[in-house]
Amino acid sequence: QVQLVESGGGLVQAGGSLRLSCAASGIIFRINAVDWYRQVPGKSRELVAAITIGGSTTYADSVKGRFTMSRDNAKNTVYLQMNSLKPEDTAVYYCHVLRLRDYWGQGTQVTVSS
């Protein structure tokens, strides 16, 4: 059974930082591409960052230069380091893996106050 568990969200002032974590069980991150999405009420989920099996990362233009995605193979965990946070980064952040089907975590709320 695949489980993705996000953590690390919270309330932070604009300009601050947070580091999100997504720990996996039942699936091995290092042999799968993994993504971070975010969603605000009333809008569809937005792809924020992705990491390939080889470790290459890509980012949405809105977060490029501020967010960094990484992977710890020993811990089977991916991270999203978020710096210089803006109020428009406020959302629920989800970890996602596509392997035969979509797997999502439960999400972690990030709130950035102005």
Task: Describe the protein.
It is a single chain. With 114 residues, the chain is mainly beta. It is 0% helix and 55% strand. The strands form two sheets. Strands 2, 4, 5, 6, 9, 10 and 11 form a seven-stranded mixed sheet that branches. Strands 1-3-8-7 form a four-stranded antiparallel sheet, with no helix packed on it. A hairpin with a 6-residue loop joins strand 4 (34-39) and strand 5. The chain is globular and about 40 Å long. 28% of the residues are buried. The model has no long low-confidence stretch (mean pLDDT 96).
Keywords:
mainly beta, 11 strands, single chain, 7-stranded mixed β-sheet, 114 residues, 4-stranded antiparallel β-sheet
